[in-house]
Design goal:
Pfam families: E217_Gp32. InterPro entries: Gp32-like. It is a single chain. Helices cover about 10% and strands about 45% of the residues. The protein is mainly beta and about 140 residues long. It has one domain (about 10-35, about 60-145): Pnp Oxidase, Chain A (Roll), CATH 2.30.110. Strands 1, 2, 3, 6, 7, 8, 9 and 10 form an eight-stranded antiparallel sheet that branches. It has a two-stranded antiparallel ribbon with strand order 4-5. The longest helix is centred in the middle third of the chain and has 15 residues, at about 75-90.
Length: about 140
C-alpha cells in the first residue's frame, strides 16, 4: 500500500492489563507532539576476538515505549489504576496492546508488557503538560490491517 498519507490522527491504541482490565480500553487524547514512541531493539550480541574477528549471535531483547497523554486524558486514570493495583498487591500485571495505523494500512500487536513508570501529576506552566507512561514490551508483531 503506497500513498501520501502518513497521518497518525486516525490511529487507534487499545490496551489490556491482565485480570484487572481484561477487556481492551482505547487510549484517548494523545499528546499532539509525540503521541507514542518505541525505542530500537538490539538483536545482536557481539564479541571482538584478539585477532580482530567480529563474532555475533542473535539474542532476544525487550524494548521500551513511551506514551504521552494530555493532562486532561481520561486514559491516564487507567494507568494510575494499574500502578495502584500493583502497589497494593505487590505484583506486576502483564499488559497487551494493539495499535492500528490506517493511514499506512498496518497494525502492531504488543505482547508481554510491564508498566515501568508513570508521572504522579502533570507539570504546570501556562498550561498543564502531557504526562508520559513508560512500558517495556516483550515483543511487537506488525501485520497488514
Amino acid at each position: 500500500m503506497s500513498s501520501w498519507d502518513i497521518t497518525s490522527a486516525n490511529s487507534v491504541f487499545t490496551m489490556t492489563a491482565g485480570s484487572l482490565i481484561p477487556v481492551p480500553f482505547v487510549l484517548s487524547q494523545y499528546s499532539a507532539d509525540r503521541a507514542f514512541e518505541a525505542e530500537s531493539v538490539e538483536s545482536a550480541e557481539t564479541q571482538m576476538t584478539i585477532d580482530g574477528k567480529l563474532l555475533g549471535g542473535w539474542v532476544p531483547n525487550p524494548f521500551n515505549m513511551t506514551i504521552q497523554l494530555a493532562a486532561s486524558s481520561d486514559s491516564y486514570a487507567m494507568f494510575e489504576m494499574i500502578a495502584e493495583y500493583e502497589r497494593v498487591q505487590m505484583t506486576k500485571l502483564r499488559l497487551g496492546a494493539l495499535i492500528s495505523l490506517p493511514s499506512i494500512g498496518r497494525k502492531f500487536t504488543l505482547n508481554g508488557g510491564f508498566l515501568l513508570s508513570i508521572v504522579p501529576l502533570p507539570s504546570a506552566g501556562r498550561v498543564l503538560d502531557a504526562r508520559p507512561v513508560q512500558i517495556r514490551w516483550e515483543s511487537c508483531v506488525g501485520a497488514a490491517l
